[in-house]
Amino acid sequence: MLKAENIKKKFTKITKNKEKFEFYANNGISMYAYDGEIIGILGPNGAGKTTFLRIIAGILEPTSGAVTFDELNYQDNETEIKKNIAYLSGNTKIYNTLSCYELLLMCADIYDVEKNDAERRILEISKTLDMDSFLYNRIETLSTGQTQRVNIARCLIHNPKYYILDEATNGLDVISSEIILNFIKNEKKKGKTIIYSTHYMEEAENICDKVLLMNHGKIILMGSPDEIKKETKTANLREAFFQKIGEDNNEE
Fold this sequence. Notes:
Layout: E1 2-14, E2 20-33, E3 38-42, H1 49-56, E4 64-69, E5 72-73, H2 74-82, E6 85-88, H3 100-110, H4 115-128, H5 144-156, E7 162-166, H6 174-189, E8 193-197, H7 201-207, E9 210-215, E10 218-223, H8 225-232, H9 237-251
Parallel strand pairs: 3-8, 3-9, 6-7, 7-8
Antiparallel strand pairs: 1-2, 1-4, 4-5, 9-10
Helix pairs in contact: 3-4, 5-6, 8-9
């Protein structure tokens, strides 16, 4: 079980006049994710989604609050936690002069996956993400969708329990998006936990067990897609999203 409890992250910004002011990118966010759940993180640009995901992934430290994975915290168990999570950022860069196979073999070595197991895992992952036709091609020759599949593949190599995915299908063609969404649904069936940030409302409605709608660093709505539609009296998450964002902005 993943817990994020009362997460706050404060940043200091310097203006053009060299004046300093502080703001909270996350301001008291709490979330619980159980085994086999897909949690969607939605919100406009600047809502604090990426900051929250980076805190969950252990890349940023919160100003206050705590994140635990199966009762383990980062302070005392960072290595063990990171062996069981995979983080995909929205702007991940990979070594484009390597072949897909070489990159995955390198990632397996980083996670201390035995060579025989690594080779088996690479072939399994290649089939799962439909990469067989370009597995041995250099990454610089791949399309955007193919490159994103390689990015997902490197997250799979150590068989993590938790996935933290930031805009995994952003800008992809229909086929690549469908492959990645099917992968996410299949990992859920295996009992894996997926935290999934997306701008695509239809995706969230179709695959997420629970959705967190964020704005101005806070959660303004949380629940299953059906619960959210019932609460907001809307037909879909897109309508609920614009209704709640408008209400929250009007309250500011």
